[in-house]
Design a protein that fits this description.
heterodimer; A: alpha+beta; 4 domains; six-stranded mixed barrel; six-stranded mixed beta barrel; 29 helices; 15% strand; B: 120 residues; alpha+beta; Arc Repressor Mutant, subunit A; three-stranded antiparallel β-sheet; 13% strand
């Protein structure tokens, strides 16, 4: 009731301030009149009575002022006044304002840009209902360390049927299929997904429906497909009658049953079509526990924790290992939250960068605080005058804060503009690839963040000089001229703190950038075991010559030999090799840094191994010239020969790691290995050559230390990669290849084209992204710190002109003066360095997953950063010190 | 000069709190009154001990009104003048009780202290 009445009275006052003021005047007048009447009645004359009444009532003006101050909404008016005054003051100091606003804009802009990416990638929930309950299940195997492998279909069924922790599970696997039977055939990404996949993600078909349980049975009866909105519009003109029509994928006919919602590309983030999971493999594959390849999406039941689900899956895995020791020994399941799967990689670089930009903003604010402090020293006279004229302390502080708020708001606006363009540049030029659902923009959350940052900065900036103001003695300031007054002890201590802060904030940034630069150097100097420069690679899909009904969709893996296709593969290689400016060309089942698959193998004469130590190798088939095309070093033996291009050539080339494991110090040439276990019916392969270790599966290191095993490309495949070493520009090369090949066979598919250098670039994108941004931020920090330190030192020298002049007049030499000025700088810088090193030691630990080839406490990097910063600080300190030595004692003292 | 200003500031501070208390007590004891009446009552009760600028009564009234301790209403005074009548609110009564207790405790303590000093 009370509150209500009070608010009402204030509102009334706001709406009708005139009337309310009039009322108050009336009230006062009535009171005075009544007093006068009383005095008159006591026998005074009219005039005397009025005078006495006014005396007894006191000062009406100050009463009205007090009343005005008290009215809540009046502070809005004074705030407006203060802000306008702030704008005017800053307008008069255009240079100061420009430098301050620009510095703040840089800091705030960088923070907003990075935060918008963090917001989009980490803070914003995934675009699925209740995403916290979604998780990915990884089948894994415990070897030297736990390795993620994927699941086998029977395992998946057992997890699904035996567990109680999950609402539903869906297997999914990304693949690429050729969209054929229409003009301009192309390869499109297609995901094989179990029936509950769509409902798990809360996705409904925009047109038609998604899969029914019957359509996901093994063996598969009906070939059905759900198209993505994009593929439907692009390839079928958005035809609303698409449902029920048939399309061809890999020369097999599928019935379209639905179209997905716009923008949805599944968890692989690129799917253009979805096919029931049961179509991915033959019934044999889908019933074999030894064939593992896919991941599983699962939704936890409400209230079930990850730990509980994990414990349940552990128990199921244990049972499976007992029941099927041959395939399931040492196998387990790892449950991992979906958002970690999607953004886990981005977390480390983004958080490191967010910390870095926060430091940049702190340094920027320190600089501006320093500027404001220097200016407020210069304005002591003005402030003292205002105080003497009746401004209260609170009002003066408010004015200073208003000024810094004007600065902060301008910096904020300029920062937002910078951030807007910065985000675009970051997404366009940054090497890091973000999922499709990530669109960093300046949305409400980012805006709120920026405004909060601005408020904190403005308040801090305004309070710094205000704190100094409160200790200042105004009559001192009034007596002295503004120029002469020296900053108090407290002011100089404050400036000392600023220098220490600048140094200790810059150092961790420099060290972080140094570590990243060293990482980039290591990555650039890294020898992957092949020479990626000037190598173009692309995949070729050959049409099936006789489309048939009973098709094995796994054709790429185990197609029956087809005489016509063999010719085609050889023809393609020959055609490409004959093109001008092709130095060398070869074929491989999988080029470096694409998906490779592994096999277990047995080395002759070695004792049988348990599941943890069972030897495993990544298997590739390559044409004769492969190692020559890639400039891979042959360590022992020989390369493949043309005579060996037939199916019974049981020779292999292996990488160094296999030799190190089984025949260290021996001659490996002529040793025999076999794919599978000892009892396998596969033929023994004789090792003909050993090549150096290849970074075939990942950079800077292969995910596992397993060796690579090469056999001659025996031309059964209709789908393979061609690698071309050429002196020509990659794009030109590719268009020539495309033109030439489609001329010989129009239905040929050429896809996944690129250069090996690009593939390597993708592998190192995280480090390069972080590295370049860190370097930019550290550069900004260094420049800001230099300006800041120079500012403080130059200011303190200018304040001590008289003292220095006096010392010199009394006989101090230039060197003494230099030492005196520099000593203060050196001790401050040293303190800053110590604090900065401590901060860096704590912070660089965050970077452990981003750096390569250096430790996060690399002494060389630390020393380098300290040295660089020391040099910059020395310049910033010595320039003013030298100027101090040039002070003419006569001029300095005459000024007195 | 600035020091003088500072000390006079302190004196008013003490007075203000006391004045608020007196205004509240007056309103609690006598019901709704206008500013002039309050000033008269304080003058009458305190005799010549408290000499105050009657304008400060209005400062106290404004402050108390803002705190919600009193409410105001326009009315007509005994001699037919338009005047604003102030009355104590429920939260004002609570404040009065609380502050009266505090005041008595403090003045009792100070009184004892001064008596001790005088007795020595």
């Amino acid at each position: 009731m009370n509150v209500y009445r009070r608010i009402l009275s204030k509102l009334r006052h706001l709406l009708a301030p005139r009337g309310s003021e009039q009322d108050f005047d009336d009230e006062v007048d009535t009171h005075v009149a009544m007093l006068a009447g009383r005095f008159h009645a006591q026998g005074m004359t009219d005039e005397e009575a009025w005078r006495a009444a006014r005396r007894q009532f006191g000062n009406t003006t100050s009463l009205k002022e007090a009343r005005n101050e008290m009215q809540t909404f009046v502070w809005l008016a004074t705030l407006w006044q203060d802000l306008r005054y702030g704008v005017r003051v800053l307008g008069k100091n255009k240079g100061f304002a420009a430098v301050a606003v620009l510095t703040l804009a840089l800091g705030i802009g960088a923070n907003t840009a990075i935060f918008s990416v963090v917001n989009a990638a980490i803070l914003r929930p995934l675009p699925y209902p209740d995403p916290a309950r979604l998780a990915i299940l990884w089948g894994n195997v415990k070897r030297l360390r736990v390795e993620r492998r994927g699941a086998s279909y029977p395992d998946y069924r057992d997890w699904r049927d035996q567990s109680r922790s999950f609402e539903a599970m869906a297997a999914f696997d990304g693949a690429e299929l050729a969209l054929t039977g229409i003009p301009e055939p192309e390869r499109i990404p297609c995901d094989y997904v179990s029936q509950p996949y769509f409902s798990l993600l809360g996705i409904h078909a925009a047109l038609g429906r998604t899969f029914s349980p019957e359509e996901d049975r093994v063996p598969q009866r009906d070939a059905v497909v759900v198209l993505s909105d994009g593929a439907w519009k692009r390839r079928f003109g958005g035809d609303p009658g698409i449902i029920g029509r048939t399309i061809q994928l890999d020369w097999r006919t599928y019935t379209v049953i639905g179209v997905g919602p716009p923008g949805f590309h599944g968890l692989t983030d690129k799917a253009e079509a979805w096919i029931p999971f049961s179509m991915e493999g033959s019934a044999t594959d889908l019933n074999d526990r030894g064939v593992v390849w896919f991941t599983v999406l699962a939704r936890l039941k409400t209230g079930v924790s990850l730990t509980r689900a994990q414990a349940e899956l552990d128990a199921i895995s244990k049972n499976l290992a007992q029941a099927y020791p041959k395939t399931n020994e040492a196998r387990g399941v790892e449950i991992s939250p979906l958002n970690r799967e999607m953004f886990g990689d981005l977390e480390a670089p983004l958080l490191v960068l967010l910390a870095a930009v926060a430091f940049v903003l702190l340094i920027a604010s320190t600089n501006v605080a320093n500027l404001m402090l220097a200016r407020s020293e210069g304005r002591r006279h003005e402030m003292a005058m205002r105080a003497a004229l009746g401004a209260s302390g609170g009002r003066l502080v408010r004015q200073l804060v208003a000024e810094s708020a004007v600065l902060g708001a301008s910096g904020c606006l300029a920062g937002l503009v910078l951030a807007h363009y910065g985000i675009r540049a970051l997404m366009a030029a940054g090497p890091l690839r973000f999922p499709n659902s990530v669109h960093p923009t300046i949305d409400a959350a980012v805006g709120l963040f920026t405004v909060l940052v601005c408020c904190v900065v403005s308040l801090a900036l305004g309070l710094a000089p205000a704190a100094q103001l409160s200790t200042a003695s105004f009559d001192e300031a009034l007596k002295q001229s503004a120029v002469r007054s020296t900053g108090g002890r407290r002011g100089s201590r404050f400036r000392d703190a600023l220098v220490v802060a600048e140094i200790s904030l810059s150092l961790p940034l420099l060290i972080g950038a140094g570590l990243m630069i060293r990482t980039l150097q290591h990555l650039a100097a890294l020898n992957p075991g092949y020479d990626p420069s000037h190598v173009v690679n692309f995949r070729v899909g050959l049409p099936r010559l006789k489309p048939s009904g009973a098709v094995n969709t796994n054709a790429a893996r185990d197609a029956k030999p087809d005489a016509k296709v063999v010719v085609a593969a050889n023809d393609i290689l020959r055609t490409v090799s004959r093109l001008p400016s092709v130095e060398s060309a070869s074929i491989a089942t999988d080029p470096p840094l694409s998906d490779s698959s592994a096999v277990y193998y047995t080395a002759e004469g070695q004792p049988p191994m348990n599941a943890q130590a069972r030897p495993r190798a990544y298997f590739h088939r390559v044409s004769v010239d492969f190692f020559r095309t890639l400039h891979t070093r042959l360590l022992a033996g020989r390369l493949f020969t043309e005579d060996e291009v037939h199916r019974d050539a049981n020779v292999a080339i292996v990488t160094q790691n296999m030799v190190m494991r089984f025949w260290p110090g021996e001659d490996p040439i002529g040793k025999r290995i076999k794919v599978g276990g000892l009892d396998s019916t596969r033929p023994w392969l004789t090792i003909a050559g050993v090549v150096s270790e290849l970074k075939y599966r990942g950079l800077p290191e292969n995910p596992t230390a397993d060796p690579d095993l090469f056999q001659v490309f025996n031309e059964r495949s209709r789908d393979f990669s061609v690698l071309v070493r050429t002196s020509l520009d990659p794009a030109a090369m590719l268009s020539t290849v495309r033109a030439t090949l489609t001329e010989t066979e129009p239905s040929i598919l050429i896809y996944d084209a690129g250069t090996l250098e690009d593939s390597i670039g993708r592998e190192t994108a995280r480090s390069r992204f972080t590295g370049w941004l860190m370097a930019i931020f550290a550069g900004i920090a260094l420049v800001l710190a230099m300006i800041g330190i120079y500012g403080v030192m130059a200011y303190s020298v200018s304040r001590r002109t008289r003292e220095i002049g006096l010392r010199m007049a009394l006989g101090a030499g230039r060197r003494d003066v230099l030492r005196m000025v520099a000593r203060r700088g050196v001790s401050l810088v040293t303190l800053g360095m110590l604090l900065g090193t401590a901060a860096a030691l704590a912070l660089t630990r965050m970077m452990a997953t981003l750096i390569y080839g250096v430790s996060s406490t690399d002494p060389l990097t630390f020393a380098g950063a300290v040295g660089l910063l020391a040099a910059v600080a020395a310049v910033a300190c010595l320039l003013p010190a030298f100027r101090a030595t040039r002070i003419d004692p006569v001029v300095a003292l005459r000024d007195e | 000069m600035s020091k003088e200003a500072g000390s006079s500031q302190k004196k008013t501070d003490v007075l203000q709190g006391t004045l608020d208390l007196m205004v509240l007590q007056t309103l609690a004891a006598l019901g709704a009154m206008h500013g002039y009446g309050i000033a008269r009552r304080i003058e009458q009760v305190s005799g010549s001990v408290l000499q105050l600028n009657e304008g400060t009564v209005y400062t106290a009234l404004l402050r108390l009104q803002q705190q919600g301790s009193i409410a105001s209403e326009w009315g007509v005074s005994d001699n037919n003048r338009r005047a604003k009548f102030y009355s104590i609110t429920r939260s004002g009564r609570k404040q009065l009780a609380r502050e009266t207790k505090d005041w008595l405790r403090i003045s009792e303590a100070i009184g004892r202290l001064l008596q001790l000093a005088a007795g020595r």
